[in-house]
Design goal:
Oligomer: single chain
CATH architecture of the largest domain: Sandwich
Strand content: 25-35%
CATH superfamily of the largest domain: Cupredoxins -  blue copper proteins
Number of strands: 10
Subcellular location: Mitochondrion inner membrane
Family: Belongs to the cytochrome c oxidase subunit 2 family.
Structural class: alpha+beta
InterPro entries: CcO_II, CcO_II-like_C, CcO_II_C, Copper_CuA, Cupredoxin, Cyt_c_oxidase_su2, Cyt_c_oxidase_su2_TM_dom, Cyt_c_oxidase_su2_TM_sf
CATH class of the largest domain: Mainly Beta
Number of domains: 2
Largest sheet: 5 strands, mixed
CATH topology of the largest domain: Immunoglobulin-like
Cofactor: Cu cation
Helix content: 25-40%
Organism: Homo sapiens
């Protein structure tokens, strides 16, 4: 999860998030090079004494500053499109979870486990235990296995919400009357936090998401849901 004074992105817990971090670094390096080039040109313009102010023909220069931006856009667009298509792939998920947004809590349904349904509310400050995170911990966590393709079916019952877990690279809108889906495969166990990322009313800040990821063998042993 994020911590105070953090500058970079959260550590990746899924292959998609690893790709997103790589693309972020790739685009940031291009931005640095562009900024350096522009600042260098400005420096030369301000410090160099012009010897000929009547030059009106610079076709080579115009060719360069027309083609170079196009090449830069291609270098950004190709990896971006690759990741975009990767996020839409559904590779035979082993487990399907349905998430329903409400004002202001989440309802989860394990469709592969006899329709197990439970609500997940943010823990009030009076109920927090030592080590719990204020505004982030919930009464019922979503327990899922690692190294297993998981499909999330996301919708809403009232207004627009957004189911987002940054460390997994997930952010999917929950829209009333529409069922969106996203898939992910967690690579390491742990407890990971997210929040609703769509302004949905007065208590928008009070509907967190908590995923508890455990090894598949433990998940298959029996009920590990924190109900």
């Amino acid at each position: 999860m994020a911590h105070a004074a953090q500058v970079g992105l959260q550590d990746a817990t899924s292959p998609i998030m690893e790709e997103l971090i790589t693309f972020h670094d790739h685009a940031l390096m291009i931005i640095f090079l562009i900024c350096f080039l522009v600042l260098y040109a400005l420096f030369l313009t301000l410090t160099t004494k012009l010897t000929n102010t009547n030059i009106s023909d610079a076709q080579e220069m115009e060719t360069v500053w027309t083609i170079l931006p196009a090449i830069i856009l291609v270098l950004i667009a190709l990896p971006s499109l690759r990741i975009l298509y990767m996020t839409d792939e559904v590779n035979d998920p082993s487990l399907t979870i349905k998430s329903i947004g409400h004002q202001w809590y989440w309802t989860y349904e394990y469709t592969d486990y006899g329709g197990l349904i439970f609500n997940s509310y943010m823990l009030p400050p009076l109920f927090l235990e030592p080590g719990d995170l204020r505004l982030l911990d919930v009464d019922n966590r979503v327990v899922l296995p690692i190294e297993t393709p998981i499909r999330m079916m996301i919708t809403s019952q009232d207004v627009l919400h957004s189911w987002a877990v940054p460390t997994l690279g997930l952010k999917t809108d929950a829209i009333p009357g529409r069922l969106n889906q996203t898939t992910f495969t967690a690579t390491r166990p742990g407890v990971y936090y997210g929040q609703c990322s769509e302004i949905c009313g007065a208590n928008h800040s009070f509907m967190p998401i908590v995923l508890e990821l455990i090894p598949l063998k433990i998940f298959e042993m029996g009920p590990v849901f924190t109900l």
